[in-house]
Hints:
Blueprint: E1 12-16, E2 26-31, E3 43-45, E4 47-51, E5 56-60, E6 65-70, H1 71-82, E7 88-92, E8 95-101, E9 104-109, E10 112-116, E11 119-121, E12 136-148, E13 157-162, E14 171-178, E15 183-192, H2 198-212, E16 218-231, E17 238-239, E18 242-244, H3 260-275, H4 287-302, H5 307-317, H6 320-327, H7 333-341, H8 345-355
Parallel strand pairs: 1-7, 4-13, 11-18
Antiparallel strand pairs: 2-6, 3-6, 4-5, 8-9, 9-10, 12-15, 12-16, 13-14, 14-15, 17-18
Amino acid sequence: MIRSGKFADKKILIVDKEEKVKNDRTWCFWENEPGLFEPIVAQHWKQAWFHANKFSRLLNLTPYQYKLIRGIDFYKYCFNLIRQHSNIHIRLGEVKGIESKGDTASLLIGEERINGRYIFNSIIFDRPVLKKKEYYLLQHFKGWVIETDRSFFNPREATLMDFRTNQDNETTFVYVMPFSETKALIEHTVFSEEVLPASKYDEGLKNYIEEVLQVSSYKVTETEFGIIPMTNHQFSASDNNIINIGTAGGQTKASSGYTFRFIQKHSAAIVDKLLNDKHPVIRTFSRRFHFYDSILLNILKHKKLSGERIFSDLFRKNKPQRLLWFLDNESSFIDELRIISSLPTMPFLKAGLRQL
Length: 356
């Protein structure tokens, strides 16, 4: 909205529960050209590894780059820009509820009610009630930024997925984002229905660093923890003048958890509607990709195949660019047929029939 230069006459309120002053998360995503947040990309890679117990490959991502943005850099960049505009106000407080009547949307902060033309809402107030054939898994992860006393990492090569880990907690993998030869973000990631005890993430990180990477001497300088819902539940795009955004607006890819780029595309489309005096509801739901995501969630939920087997087949039998198009919901039907044909036929056929 700021970049468009067209909203200086509008009063805009940003409400968040707490001030953003910590490096509490990291966003990783791929782009094939400079994006809106290019000035704060901390690191990018043109090559990335996939590892499994029986298969490894160094992936050439060109024309894509895999990019990393640190949470604190994102917050500083955005709020420095926001504070230059007197029509935008920031309010700290917990939103207790939102509603929309007629042309007015309103929210409650404590006992105070605030009205506006639109509310752009990213809050999931309650876990959704699932219908038949809907699934709700969690992608949960803990990351350490570690520093070593000698060179261990290649800063030109990231690791997208490494399944050389204990798979007792369902689909488990690690990704490695090196900043230099002696510094990297190591993230222990699990797809399952429940989060793990805190000690399990630390145990997984320690085992991976010492046994797989064979790094014996290191110090942990930063930590982060996150949970992303992986669900084929169809979140509502809007409720009159409440426009849902982010995960609450269905912008998380159900089969992968990737969200950052989907949010950027969704936000750009919302602003385009506002600039053209249209109701800013963007319906991004795709029956085709929803069906694909549902099949994978069905298989993971019912444990018909391991996540390691599925992702190994995908990365072994397909060009990485084709997979990135697919994960971006931008692939052609021909590409999708090639991807589907690279997977074990009977489990996916049965899951597809169940979803139909």
